[in-house]
Amino acid sequence: MLDAIVIGAGFSGLYMLHRLRGLGMSAAVLEAGDGVGGTWYWNRYPGARCDSESYYYSFSFDEDLQQEWRWSERYPRQPEILAYLNHVADRFDLRRDIRFGTRVTAASFDEGWTVRTERGEELRARFLIGAVGCLSSANVPELEGLDSFAGEWYHTGRWPHEDVDFTGKRVGVIGTGSTGIQAIPVLAEQAAHLTVFQRTPNFSVPARNAPLDEEFQAAVRAEYAEIRALQRQTGNGHPFRISPHNAVDTSPEQRREVYEAAWQRGGLRFRAAFNDLLSSQDANDTAAEFIREKIRETVRDPEVAERLLPHDHPFAAKRPPIDTGYFETYNRDDVTLVDVRETPIVEVTEGGVRTSAAEHQLDALVFATGFDAMTGPMLGIDVRGANGTLAEKWRDGPQSYLGLQVAGFPNLFIITGPGSPSVLTNMPTSIEQHVDWIARCLKDLRDNGFERIEATEEAERAWGEEVQAAADRTLLPQAKSSWYLGANVPGKPRVFMPYAGGLAHYAALCDDAATHDYAGFHRS
């Protein structure tokens, strides 16, 4: 029997394996793909990039690793991130404990975990660690007639590993979230004609992507200790602080200057322009209207611009995209925007997509419809605990204590699962915090002679109340179509899943629980 089985070989699985080895524990990582990378192995769609800046979208656990790696751009493309993760796997000799092409289908607990794979293999371990990612279960909408479509269709989260050539083709894209906003400008450059099917207009801020010169990279390498410390001190895991000033207390003239400077700098720091953007509707309205004005200035056709203006959710209440030329794309003569709220999709036909108003002839169809986020990856496995299944436990929404463990599922840990800050943060920062906590917990169990640990139902209930209360202190739940709430998946419970109380505060709570003999957990 192994000490631990880890499911997934992305950022989480690689670091977890490294820490388990450091503890002298035997471990195997089971990975469905044929290589490491997780999200960055599967998401190869045109335009795929990170929306955190490269120099801190990376591991901090090894100083030599930080000093030797060189990023080429402010926002790295998918191939560069994948190359980085392959470098990590090779540098720390991780592949010898990873079983590629091994999809886990079931796991059951009986004084240890038995894990079953798609090929019928069985493995046993004392501990099971889900490193399956928050955004890894592709959400393909059930559209009438999709099987009849004569062209090729793709999902951005399951993109082919070979090149896809859209030259001379009529291409349709369904979805204008973060992924669609990245892919649409690139697809427009390739296709003979691009038709965008938009359900929800989205706020987006320019990325201002650019190459990184050696002077900047040398300065980062010299300051990494301070940068990493700041990441751990902030609410979102990024190395910048939110302004202490409130938008509602700032004059319109000064406010516009602040927004304009943030717009020109680009990127996710726009959200940090004022302290009250996610706690005050009045404050948020000022940012939202500033972005709407930018959209009106950018898109030449006033009718198209109007359809692109978001009004149904506060700015940053949904995952806030950053883009390169997204709104400019709608100035092209070979791009058509279809508002599917006004004219809903009726069916996919042999020749394209038919809405209530017209049929759009297509040679290829791209689904940028996101994922069954946060819960989907774990629920894609038949997980059976001491008293029932995870699917039954989460029927009305996910339950966990600190997003780390689920009552009734002993010795099961989930990295950046529902109930943790995860997707509201810079993911590698959250991943390292979770993995380090789990490694500490496993060491403490061993050192104190315990074989088993499980969250208590009382702690789980109290944490669920805190997760909801933290969300309610913000504007985040107002985005009714957000995948933070599971709203992009038909039939999924509408529950706000990530913890909105901030990463630094959350990490302190985790440390406090561990320090006080793992309060909220039962050890035996």
Automatic annotation (TrEMBL):
<dbReference type="InterPro" id="IPR036188">
    <property type="entry name" value="FAD/NAD-bd_sf"/>
</dbReference>
<comment type="similarity">
    <text>Belongs to the FAD-binding monooxygenase family.</text>
</comment>
<protein>
    <submittedName>
        <fullName>NAD(P)/FAD-dependent oxidoreductase</fullName>
    </submittedName>
</protein>
<keyword id="KW-0285">Flavoprotein</keyword>
<keyword id="KW-0503">Monooxygenase</keyword>
<keyword id="KW-0521">NADP</keyword>
<dbReference type="Pfam" id="PF13738">
    <property type="entry name" value="Pyr_redox_3"/>
</dbReference>
<dbReference type="InterPro" id="IPR050775">
    <property type="entry name" value="FAD-binding_Monooxygenases"/>
</dbReference>
<keyword id="KW-0560">Oxidoreductase</keyword>
<keyword id="KW-0274">FAD</keyword>
